[in-house]
Amino acid sequence: MLKKFLVLSFTIPLVLGPFLLSADELFCKQTANYTMDIKLDTEKKSITGKELLSWTNDSEFAVDELWFHLYWNAFQNNMTTFLSEGTRRRSAIYRFKKEDWGYCRVDLIKIVKNRYFEDYDLMPSMEFRRPDNNNLHDQTVFSVKLPKALQPGETILLEIKFRSKVPRPVSRTGTYRDYYFIAQWFPKIGVFLEGKWNCHQYHASSEYFADYGTYDVKITLPSSYIVGATGEHRQKIDNTDGTTTHHFYQHSVHDFAWTASPHFLENRENFEFAPGKATEITLLLQPEHKNLKERYMNAVKAAIKYCSLFYGDYPYTTATCVDPAYNSRSGGMEYPTFFTGGANFLTRKGIPRPEGVTIHEFGHGYFYGLVGNNEFENAWMDEGFTSFLDTEVYYAAYGEPFYYKYYFGIPVTFKEVNIPIESEGISRHRLTSDMDILQRFAWEFMEGGSYGANSYAKAELMLRTLKRFIGKDIFSRMIKSYSQRWWFKHPRPKDFYDVVQEFAGQDMNWFLDQFIYGSGKLDYAIGKISNRRERQPQGFFDGKYQKGSKEKSKKALYESEVLVRRLGEVRVPVDILIIFENGKEIRENWDGQYRWKKFKYRGPVRIEAAVIDPDFKLVIDVDRTNNSLMRKANKLAPLKWTSNWLGWLQHALEFFTVFGG
Amino acid sequence: MKVLLNFIKGFKSTGKAAKMVVLLFIINLAFSLVLAVPMYHSLKSSMGKSKAGERMAKGFDYLWWEEFQDDSKGLSTTFTPSIIGPGALLDNVENLVHMRKLRLPPVILIAGLLYIILHTFLAGGILSLFIQRPIKFTMKSFFEGAGHYFIRFFLLMLISWVFFMAISIFLNSGFSSIIDNVSRKALTEKEPFFLGLFFSALIFFLILFIQMVFDYARINIVVEDGKNVFKSALKAFSFVFRHPGSTLGLYYLIFLISLAVAGIYILIKSIIPQSAFIGVFTAFLFQQTFIFAVIWLRCWLYSSQLELYRYLE
Q1: Residues of B in contact with A426 (CB under 8 A)
Q2: Which of A99, A359, A403, B172 has the smallest C-beta neighbourhood within 10 Å, fewest atoms?
Q3: Which among B82, B96, B183 has CB closest to A405?
């Protein structure tokens, strides 16, 4: 009876909880709802937990099995898919001891009786699945068979008991000394999409995908720990055994992560980012970074303010920023309403840390958090969008950063060298992105560098180019609309195409396809400018011989010509600016379809310079230097910079004499 | 007092050998210009007639530089924004300290090696001039001195490399392992940072110390016309360990002056506008004055050390 009561007391809020809120409070359909009660044993570095999951079949298909992620099993041996792919991750497990490995074990999974199902033990049917490869050492996905099919619209209630060993940090999650960053840590149901389970194994370069729902989580751990997590910190109960239970709640999110450390400096501020709209910012800071409090706080505020402006008002009541502990490998990651920054205690004004990473990870709250794309399959739809977002927000809030370099670990800024917004991502794109196309599954890129260059850099550059190509106003409306239209949903590339087309008022597939499904580069160049004095007629004309005049006319006429070339594969219409020596300017347009085009002029003045893409719309052009050509070279620049370089060299040579006479 | 006395004597001697300093400066400039010519052409060819040239004339076009860097090999890779301001000097200090991590292209390393050998040759001329009384510079006597001591100085250089290699291979890698270990177990980034800084300072000190010892070895050869380079090296070590206060005091006195000169150079050069030929020319002249001062300081160090050696021995 008591057991039944306990189960009921646990399940009733779970089933009803999300629906007790008004429609305004619930932002979307709550498909996967978790009520969890977990304990962290800081001695054994383990978690024991009980999870009640209510999952609704939102599809049009009957479902006869359920698939789950067990992400932490990626850290249980060195042969898992996650640790077999890429060397960067493997270096983290170098010198791993027995107690450093991590895992998640399911001890119980059963159906709890509701209107559609009777109590039923699913453990016997539990089976590890490998949808992406045949790696038998990988246990990051499992499935269970249902006793009968779950029909569309029906809800199933599951009780899951699990125990986890917290890994030493390999990537994103784990424990280092008494710092815990706990992410992707519980048995988590996959997404039933397009008639099948979309539940990929954990890969070295992939992130996550999940359905929206409500998370009602109680975390018990030693009272000395300060805790931060996804959502609202609703309650804190001190227990008699020296532990404290923290209660967190958040609806309309697709993940739940948390952190704990006795050393956090906890800062809270209520921030009104628009009239009548506020959110509570929590900053959990490492003591050695207490001097960075204002910088972190201001970065979060800038991110909330500008993201709300550009992509829709931030809908949640909390935003928790964690300054990660050194060696925790948890920096620069995002979870709904909860994210990590990263900084060095020596950072200084003009260096975009912690601001850049803080804005980026908060920004993921939009592209991944609110717009819930599939990070496994369409990584560019969150990484590219968020890279674009963080650059736009950073430059809007802080302006251009300075070039900087570390000497003996101390950053030195070069205030003479500003980094313009157009440089973001272009070098990576230029050097690496043609190894693949943008739209690949995250683990199918040739290498990590190509994944990054495509998913982050190329996608960001494509969006910035699109912004300048279709116009800032149209783009701003388009991107905001795309964002808000796909909040709490799972958009695919086509959905983005549709919104672009709608706002651009024309078919834009030709544009997007070249970047998303092509590996070509965009490179326009001014091939040549020439100015030739108009020739005097000489020879036979209609049978009559005409002798050319040797005297040059005082008022010479010139036949001038500009050759423009397309050196890359990508074709986009482009403007050309022709500047004459008297200051007159002519603008031309070229469709860029053929490899080159010549523009010819006749007049009393010569062409002084020609510039292709004068308004710098095509940010993704890999060679900007060849976009302009002048009749006369600037003589000062190479002389000036050779002279400066010469100073460095002369000093270097004198330095070398330490080793000689 | 001993230090100050010989420091002043050294200054006076260097003043009397100003023509030699000019010669050394011209050699440095000429040697550097050999590499500056291909760099000039590389920059000219990249900027060409592009608008990037205009932008680079006015300031620093970061976008152009990224393209140039992505496309560059060899010598061109050394053209970075850090050659502006303090970066030019800091780059060299860091390269010196982290020898193991030298990332300079082969052409620079070969040039550096040739310059070291050249300077080993010239050191004979420098010291043979400073030992003369009265000091009177002539090309003939300078190069005779250089030739006279070259073989021995060259052998000394090879011996000194054993010490430098030991610092580079054993100390640097040992320190790196310690830092890695500390870093793996550290609570904050401060621990490995300060340890790294301490090790860098220690390596820097050791490199300069070895340089100073071998300066005295060269001085020993010139003063005593010693034929055995090993013996001279041992005598130099013995001399420095018998007079640590005087030798280190003198060395670091001139080192501090060098730092002050570098500070003034960085400060003033940063305010010279270089957006017109006159500015570029002024900056060039000022830069050459600095290099001249660096060479002067090196000669001053030699002459003061020579005076100190004679004073104490």
Answers
A1: 63, 66
A2: A99
A3: B82
Residue A287 gets which letter from DSSP?
A: G
B185-to-A75, A92, A221, B182, B188 alpha-carbon distances in Å: 20, 13, 24, 5, 9
For B170-223, what is each residue's pLDDT tens digit? 898 899 999 999 998 899 999 999 999 999 999 999 999 999 999 999 999 999
Q: Are B119 and B146 in contact (CB under 8 A)?
A: no
A627 contacts B35? CB cut-off 8 A: no
CA A57 to chain centre: 29
What is the distance between the alpha carbons of residues A228 and A221, in angstroms, rounded to a whole number?
A: 12
CA separation for the pair A411, A352 (Å, rounded): 12
CB distance B28–A653 less than 8 Å?
Answer: yes
Portions of chain A given CATH number 2.60.40.10: 524-538+554-633
Q: Over range A287-303, report the average pLDDT.
A: 97
Q: What is the average pLDDT value for chain A, to the nearest integer?
A: 94
> How confident is the model over B88-137, as pLDDT tens digits?
889 888 888 887 556 788 999 999 999 999 999 999 999 999 999 899 99
Tell me which fold the domain A27-261 belongs to: Immunoglobulin-like (2.60.40)
Query: What percent of chain B is helix, strand and coil (3-state, nearest 5)?
Result: 85, 0, 15
Q: Which residues contact B246 (CB under 8 A, 6 or more apart)?
A: B2, B3, B308, B312
List chain B domain ranges. Answer: 2-38+84-312
**In chain A, which residues have their Cβ closer than 8 Å to the Cβ of B280?**
636, 639-640, 643
CATH 2.60.40.1730 residue ranges for chain A? 27-261
First-to-last CA distance in chain A? 93
Question: Which CATH fold topology does A263-376 show?
Answer: Zincin-like (3.30.2010)
Q: Which CATH architecture is the domain A524-538+554-633 placed in?
A: Sandwich (2.60)
What gap in Å lies between CA B195 and CA B228, rounded to an integer?
Answer: 40
Cis preceding linkage at A131, omega within 30: no
Q: In angstroms, how far is the first alpha carbon of chain B from the final one?
A: 16
ipTM of predicted assembly, 2 dp: 0.96
Contact A140, A81 (CB under 8 A): yes
Cβ atoms of residues B3 and B250 within 8 Å:
yes
